[in-house]
Amino acid sequence: MSEAASVGLERYGWDGEWQRxxxxxxxxxxxxxxxxxxxxxxxxxxxAGDEVIAASDSQRSQAAVxxxxxxxxxxxxxxxxxxxxxxxxxxRTAIVRRDPAITVTKQTLAANVNLVGILVGLDLPPNEARxxxxxxxxxxxxxxxxxxxxxxxxxxxxxRLRVRREVAAVAPGIDIVETSATEGWGLEDLRRAMAxxxxxxxxxxxxxxxxxxxxxLVGAPVLAVGEVRDADRAGRxxxxxxxxxxxxxxxxxxxxxxxxxxxxxxxxxxxxxxxxDIAGRAGDCRFRDCTHRxxxxxxxxxxxxxxxxxxxxxxxxxxxxxxLAQQSEARAERLRLQSRGRRGVKRRRRxxxxx
Length: 355
Hints:
alpha/beta, six-stranded mixed sheet, five-stranded mixed barrel, 35% helix, flat
């Protein structure tokens, strides 16, 4: 039995609200656990004693939602079959993006997260567009975002201050924490933010230092760490799956693979929240459906000309809106085709019955 699996549900974030959610389900013989990792057709469930490998594929599990790392689940033992997940408790928060392999499908990266750490490595200039996408992802989840400047020892004080100002310009009002996993500073700030029973997920591209930072927070090499190419500072995908780890002092960490593609999913409200400096002016435009491009009486374009809205930031906002609009159209078209297919099946059935 591993230490992580024996410390009890509370260490993983179980509380009275989760207990009430569990009591509302008519599954008195099921056990409770939290999903640590997810494989093909199974989930590793923690917090219920020994680590339990429970079947979660649709052929055996009755759960309406496929489990993801961070989910609270109810599972039961079946003689001759082993453990099977019965249901997934309703999620409080969820990190969701568009599945990079399927245009009209969403992918849940992690569930029941309190704090979303968006890592920005100081070995490369900050990528404003990527930071904004991660901020929309975090805002849409319902969790609290924080930007973590990693590899802080690679820049001197003035260099870190310059990057901090650049990042703050695209993330107004968001906490920014400077860290160095190798030298150990900034880690205590993150530990305090996590506190006991809170869950922190690290998001960012490969090579940004997610696993290195989480190992430093835990104080042990619990996650694999890869090398970064000197030529372009790109990292290899050392983390190949999402993994939940306990903090010795309390709190839960979730490591994630490097995300090259951060496509949004039904995040209209979150987009306007992150770009509130632009969305807040849209109400003063002459036309309600203004795209802020060439329409007359556009308050956003007036702000660009006045220098109060950055033109490049507006262009990134428009690209994200276009992406969400195209995604919505693709989903609507898929529903139309599915509906047409169902009507065709019903029509053929009626013809067969008449004949």
